[in-house]
Amino acid sequence: MTSINIGIQKQDRIEIAEGLKRLLADSYTLYLQTHNFHWNVTGKQFRELHLLFEEHYNALALAVDEIAERIRTLGVAAPGTYKAFAELSAIEEVEGVPSADEMVDILTKGHEQVVRTARSVLKVAQDADDESSASLVSDRMREHEKTAWMLRAMRENG
């Protein structure tokens, strides 16, 4: 590949890409959990949750592509295996099929974890004056914060 000259130092590009790899891994793991729950949800809220989870995993599928492409834009290879994602992700795998309420709780925690990962990457991108990565990460944070809020609201009594 030819040299990259986009106004961001090589070491900064690498550091940002490393953070984006963690964001990609968290997002992909959350995508898989959400898709799994879409397939396996049962109970009184089946239709609502089945459709909601489908909406969420479709949005995550687009997000992981955008994150991976940003990593490539920075000149770094994007991870793309289950093994790599498992090593990079802060989101834990789920065994078995949880109840619908547990699914909502697990996904809420997953979205909150993505926000925390994004927040750590955002600081690195801002410090390197990488507005493109900062914008991408900021947009992801906003989406995951909103999704976590909506999922939490589903579990409130009242």
TrEMBL record:
Ferritin/DPS domain location, by residue?
Answer: 18-156
**Homology family:** Belongs to the Dps family.
TM helices/strands, residue ranges: none
Q: What EC designation does it have? A: 1.16.-.-
Organism superkingdom:
Bacteria
Tell me yes or no: is Oxidoreductase among this UniProt entry's keywords: yes
Q: Among its keywords, does the record have Oxidoreductase? A: yes
Extract one GO molecular function annotation from the record. oxidoreductase activity, acting on metal ions
What name appears for this protein in its UniProt entry?
DNA protection during starvation protein 2
State the PROSITE patterns in the record.
DPS_1, DPS_2
The gene for this chain is dps2
Q: Which Pfam families match?
A: Ferritin
UniProt keyword annotations, A-Z: Oxidoreductase
> Do you know which PANTHER family this protein is assigned to?
DNA PROTECTION DURING STARVATION PROTEIN, GENERAL STRESS PROTEIN 20U
Q: Which organism is it from?
A: Grimontia celer
